[in-house]
What we know:
It catalyses: (sulfur carrier)-H + L-cysteine = (sulfur carrier)-SH + L-alanine. It holds the Pfam family Aminotran_5. GO terms for molecular function: cysteine desulfurase activity; iron-sulfur cluster binding; metal ion binding. This is Cysteine desulfurase. Belongs to the class-V pyridoxal-phosphate-dependent aminotransferase family. NifS/IscS subfamily. This protein has about 375 residues and is α/β, with parallel strands linked by helices. It folds into two domains: about 1-10 and about 255-380, Aspartate Aminotransferase, domain 1, CATH 3.90.1150.10; about 15-250, 3-Layer(aba) Sandwich (Aspartate Aminotransferase, domain 2). Helices cover about 40% and strands about 15% of the residues. Strands 4-10-9-8-7-5-6 form a seven-stranded mixed beta sheet, with helices on both faces. The protein has a three-stranded antiparallel beta sheet with strand order 11-12-14. The chain starts with a strand and ends with a helix. The protein binds pyridoxal-5'-phosphate.
Amino acid sequence: MIYVDNNSTTRLADEVAQAMSEAYAAGYLNPSSQHQLGQKARRRLDDARENILNFLGGETTRFQGDRLVFTSGGTEANNLALFGLGKITGGQVIISAIEHPSISEAADQLRARGTIVRVLPVNTDGVAQLDQLSDWLAEPTRLVSVMLANNETGVLQPVTEISHICRQHGVPLHVDAVQGIGKIPVNFRSLQASAMTISPHKFHGPRGIGALVLDDHVKLNPAMFGGSQQLAMRPGTESVELTIGFETALKLAIGAISEAGIRMQFLRDRLEDTLLKDLGSDVMAINGRNALRLPHTSNIAFPGIDRQALVMALDMAGVACSTGSACASGSSEPSPTLIAMGLSEEVISGSIRLSLSRDTTEEEIDEVAKRISNCIKHLRRS
Ligand SMILES: Cc1ncc(COP(=O)(O)O)c(C=O)c1O
């Protein structure tokens, strides 16, 4: 099976598995325990937290500066940001039309509780449009949350510009950087955001851990209660082992970023160009192609083809890819991202996502292109 569904999750890197198994063998115990073993676990946890912050360009000393709150993953970090950042009462929240469900559905919950939620539209390339942002920010606003790059198209969002406008209005900005970290250089301080979400299983780290980075002056109200861990912002016993996996994966991803970025982009472009040459532009189109994109993501429309049938045919042909947002039943809803881009129903219902990783090889990409072409030709005939 050739795996091109890396925006969904990635393979755990061997070095990460090794570091985690050594951590489990070292028997790190509860970092909140007072005995020596607990203190040893606390020191290792604090080291990992500080290293992760440093890798991300955060400014930290152990007791002040930017902070990093470990969570169970990106979904929890996004929820924590949306419900807990900024002044807790009153004020609208602004998001973009293409946020991950862990932001858009959390925003629906806020709306149901009386918060005004405003949604920035995107253009046909999937880039958030900021024309109304300053006007909206003239109203009391608790938080703006916009992703760094879209999970379905890979299209980069104008977060630097948004952060500039937010600072002019003194409104905190949260950036969901889940798909960008490890693929393009990301520096938390340069972004000048108040908070940023990270999820290491997207860059060959462990599933079950994520983080919310907070700048030194933003306030986070907790969503859970019952412990003093992580300054009571996210209580619960921390896993030193998962934290070490996170730290190791981030170090590896950042170390490999320039070479891997160039290679993934070369392979992604090769895949798109080969398909275009073989099938022609009247049979397929690349969603978001005119915008700046992450180097490893390709969202391809085959109008007239049913995306679900195509993904299943590809699965049978030994290619694992995705239709975008899969729901629990395994079927897929039409992509809210592609809908927000104003694409036609035919394009939306025929679009699939292919996402590479630093492990993807040229042979695999050539094989994927061949198998997609065959499946499309077969589906078009039938
Ligand atoms: C942009 C984005 N944000 C958040 C998440 C949620 O992350 P996690 O799977 O760690 O909960 C994802 C996962 O696909 C994502 O793509």
